[in-house]
Amino acid sequence: MVDGSWSIGAENFEQIRQFLFTLVDSFDVSPDHVRIGLVQYSDNPLTEFLLNTFENKDDILNNIIKLPYRGGGTMTGKGLEFMSNEHFVGKAGSRAAQKVPQIAVVITDGKSQDDVESHAKNLRRRGIVLYAIGVIIFAIGVGDVNQQQLESIVNLPAHHFLYTIDSYQALQRLTDTAKLADFVFIVDESGSIGSENFDLVRSFLLSIVSGFDVGDKRVRVGIVTYSDQATALVYLNNFNETDSLLNFIKILPYRGGGTNTGAALDFTRKNIFTEDAGSRKDKGVQQVAVVITDGESQDNVTEAAAALRRAGVTVFSIGVEGANKKQLEVMAGQDKARVFYVDNFDALEKLYKNITEVLCNSTKPGKQLNV
Q: Where does the record place the VWFA domain (predicted)?
């Protein structure tokens, strides 16, 4: 939902077009994958296109290039109400009934001239504040925007969903930064998994990593496997392109053993999230760890996970079958939005789209960007 009020101006609106173009170009757009709608609002909201107007990316991109700048006041509340009633409904292409996550992105540069809180609450009531189902509202505020008002729009915690920048030129930096991260997968290879299920873990990793733009200046990926002991199979600076990494994952070895998850977390912090191993933490690049396990750790995970988070690493945990759910939550810092659980290894493949979306969202920049 894009603010098209007079305060933006034609030159800045062109920056919005470029931002939308870059963002949409990164999605897998189709009726069965990502659907995109667009509302422009000022005094009144207007549908530019619905979720089911276009079935392919090129048509959306062509429409964005020609997106008109309409001008007017700033009635954000009216825009939110319009979006709820006219866009997030089945006849407009919404798949909420099929439990497809519903996400709204609000871009504005000024204080709304009407009430936004009640309409934002209505949108949030239609979903849950998780990356699973419902309407999840993000807001990108530019320039002299009302911070308190934006915080009343977004889901909680606000710092996960709210980004403020000081110029429209900086919008492009948001899309660039979202493609920049250091990911380390910490994979349980204990005896309880078995070679057949480990094949499914390989397939899951292939699905996730294939969606990354792996490169020295883009996404870096590391892989640690563990049982009784942890082993670094891929350091963050080992692979500079996606295909070669995918080929390695296909032959990822499986060894078996016990389940010492705490030791694996410590090993990863000390040996992988380091400058020598390719970590770019000192350059401000987001550090993300993804733990995949099917059992209860035989050692303590609490201190190791806390140390990893204190080192600036965002931890996600994925549990399968007999995984200890309490330990999964402890590793993720009690943030349930970063905890995933499936009943069997076959279900991992169905999970990858949700976890990929969450991982991509986790790599967005911090609350303030001064560029």
A: 1-178, 182-355
